[in-house]
Amino acid sequence: MQTVVVLSPDLVELVALFLSDDLPAFVAALAPWGRTPALDAFVRLQHCADVTVAWPRVTIHHALAIATSDALRGALSLRPAIEVVMPRDGDLALVVAPYARCITRVRFPRLHPMTTMDGYAMRNALLALPRLRSLELAPQQFAPSDTYLDALLETLEHDHLTSLQLHVDMPRGEVFLDRRFAINLVRWLQRPSRRCLSLRSVRVRLDDDPMLLQTLREAIQSHPRLSAQLVHVDIFDEYVLHGEQLPQVFQAQRWASSLVASLEPRPIDRMARAIAKPMGDAPACGYLVEAVDAPARPTFLVTSHGTLQDMSSRLTQMLPTLPWLRLLLLHKSTGDDIARLVDVLPRCQRLSHLVLSGPGLTPTVVAALLRRLPQCPSTRWLGLQNPTCSSRELMAMDGWRHCLRRLEHMELSSSQWSFRDKAAVLNDAQRHMKAATVVIHVSPPSSRWGLDRLFP
Predict the structure, then answer these.
(1) Would you list the DSSP string of 431-447?
(2) How many domains are contained in the chain?
(3) Predicted TM-score (pTM) of this structure
(4) Is 24 a member of any domain?
(5) Is 160 inside a domain boundary?
(6) Buried b / exposed e along 302-330 (16+ C-beta atoms within 10 A)
(7) What is the pLDDT along the chain (456 residues), one digit of tens a residue?
């Protein structure tokens, strides 16, 4: 006689809680009579057209039909991670709902201005969500006042919020936040747990409070588990190193000195002067934009838009003294600039990414660069934009194939090469590179060439 073991409903549901994304397969394998009411509700929820279910995530875009609401309410004991995508009007009812205790993420992808009172009402609703982890705001329309946004951002006071994204998506637009946001952001960053912060086109008015501004900078720089992406954020605009004002951009856990977009003349000169100034007993610069305060945060990027001219000699002398330099990107460099760089490359021991563009990439300069690269112990990524050598000249250079065997990624662009030339270079590169990616652009890339791949 065969014995059939039947788990109690409590045990079945306990197993379901631990399965997470395997729950659909588990429920499909259960006989209908073995399902608990919560699992029955889960089955119904999967067939509801007004929600997106990728368990444990359930995404809600608008008010739910009665049947969907009942199914979701019945499945709450399985602890779904509910994501609410707010419509343009910011429907408060979507977060003040029976399923509110399971909301983990709220997105405002088309955020339009609201009254200050409505902003505070939405803030109160967000703070009342016990499992909220992530808040994303994308203002898309100019407003005479950003006080509603200040109110929404007080959600930073939430005990469990770990991710904040504020991306202003308006042509030539930005938002202006008050000091209350800065205070809350400092407190949020002072918690040791993992944090994700992404700001774009944001101004924090702290000109009259330099102490708070410095505290905020230090909180961002010193957090041990912060993933940060700050683009066009005045917290670090006009950053000062040794009296030199240097515009800066944060990108995804990397310091990136974004000098291309600077409105000030000759930013590369100011950077070189600032680096060259002594700092007493302090070690050599680990950032290009700030002296070494936290050596674990490496410098990744140097950019210039235009020739380095008289400062290139000093700058290239300083590069080997930057112990954490990982990535070097130079736009529109002359042959003399690159020749000086080639001479010091072997002393840049940690340099892993090198991207060059400009009229200075002559056959002689490119050949010297390829011969020198094998002496660079860490370099695995090479980008060359519009070298003046032909495809045949490039493939005939002494260091070409040796470099191919060492590199993991090569990116090339040349407006002078025909499609056949590019195909020949690509085929030759792929034959000699072991486990690498080779990219040859069909047309000249944009001015952000190389950056989008490194900092997506």
Answers:
(1) HH-SS-EEEEESS---T
(2) 1
(3) 0.56
(4) yes
(5) no
(6) bbbebbbeebbeebbebbbbbbbbbbbbb
(7) 454 445 555 666 666 666 666 766 667 767 677 677 878 888 888 888 888 888 888 999 988 889 998 988 988 888 888 999 998 877 888 888 888 899 999 999 888 888 889 889 999 999 999 999 999 999 887 776 788 888 999 999 999 999 999 988 776 577 888 888 999 999 999 988 888 888 888 888 787 788 888 888 788 877 778 877 777 777 765 444 444 444 343 332 333 333 333 333 334 444 455 545 544 433 333 333 332 223 333 344 444 444 444 445 666 666 776 666 677 777 666 777 788 888 888 888 878 888 888 778 889 999 999 999 888 888 888 888 888 888 899 999 988 888 888 888 888 888 788 888 888 888 888 787 765 566 776 544 443 334 333 333
Question: What is the token pair recorded at 271?
Answer: 């950077």
Residue 102 in any domain: the answer is no
Range of the domain at 1: 1-79
- The reply to whether 47 falls in a domain is yes
Question: Measuring CA to CA, which residue among 334, 333, 320 is closest to residue 284?
Answer: 320
